[in-house]
Specification:
Glucose Permease (Domain IIA); globular; alpha+beta; 3-stranded antiparallel sheet
């Protein structure tokens, strides 16, 4: 009879999972800290260009997460930041070409979703927030009254670039200053109006049939666009550098992907919404 010792990586992950189940401790470690200072410090550290430091940092990162670099264009990174914002190999994220389908703009875990009712949506059960607070004004939120929203949360190990969900024109990018609360499920159940408090950017898109669409990502990577810039479905729009969430808003008449469920994992290019009156080629 032989026995094997569990790998150190497996043991660390079990320890990590145990900590994650301790909600009070998890919330304390991820939010009851000087958030802005910690975010700036991590931003500075992630940009240090040292091959040995980068390798060690990535090795530690992989011990505690499901980081998979097999799809990355390169596995040699000059900094931790370069790994976090990595590009993928061509074809790693095929985009559904069906014009009836609005695709997921990012890899993400489905959070709260549903109708926009009386200018209100939910970040978690029992935690509503007003769309005008998220968008920054009632005028910006008004086109989505009676429509739909879907929250997509990215973990640290996921692919962190986001892409156009349809052929569209980018009409405006509005940056809204704010805090840096962690956006994990534990915080979403404890901090009211969390998305409205955090730093965020609102990307206003107009589809080729004139319908408005909005993406509300937090911490987008640096980019420049002129008003009215045309975007092709699947085209890269930017990337995240820190906390990562996208909330997709669509106006009245759009439908949800029929099998959409909380905690489902979606990838860039997979179906998310259905255009009004359209019938997808592959239900």
């Amino acid at each position: 009879m032989t026995t094997t010792r569990p790998s150190s990586r497996g043991a660390l992950r079990r320890w990590r999972d145990h900590l994650l189940l301790q909600e009070d401790l998890n919330f304390l470690l991820t939010n009851r800290v000087p958030r802005l200072a910690l975010t700036r410090s991590m931003g500075w550290f992630s940009r240090l260009r040292n091959p040995w430091l980068t390798r060690i940092s990535i090795a530690v990162w992989r011990l505690f997460t499901d980081l998979d670099l097999s799809e990355a264009r390169t596995t040699h990174f000059e900094s931790l930041h370069a790994c976090f914002t990595r590009e993928l190999k061509p074809g790693a994220r095929p985009v559904d070409p069906d014009p009836a389908v609005i695709t997921s703009p990012c890899d993400g875990i489905v959070g709260a979703f549903g109708p926009v009712t009386a200018g209100q949506v939910f970040q978690a059960k029992g935690f509503p927030y007003r769309t005008e607070d998220l968008f920054g004004s009632q005028a910006a939120a008004a086109p989505f009254e009676g429509g739909l929203f879907v929250t997509l949360r990215l973990t640290s190990a996921m692919y962190h670039r986001f892409h156009a969900p349809a052929d569209a024109r980018l009409e405006a990018v509005t940056h809204l200053a704010g805090d840096t609360w962690n956006v994990n499920p534990i915080a979403l159940k404890r901090v009211e109006r969390l998305f409205c408090r955090n730093e965020r950017a609102v990307l206003a898109l107009r589809l080729d049939d004139g319908q408005p669409l909005a993406l509300g990502p937090g911490w987008p990577g640096p980019h420049q666009w002129a008003p009215g810039t045309p975007m092709r479905k699947g085209e890269e729009l930017g990337w995240f550098e820190h906390g990562s969430t996208i909330i997709v808003f669509a106006p009245r008449g759009f439908g949800l992907r029929p099998d959409l469920e909380p905690n489902a994992r979606l990838r860039v290019g997979e179906p998310l919404l259905i255009r009004p009156g359209a019938v997808p080629a592959h239900p």
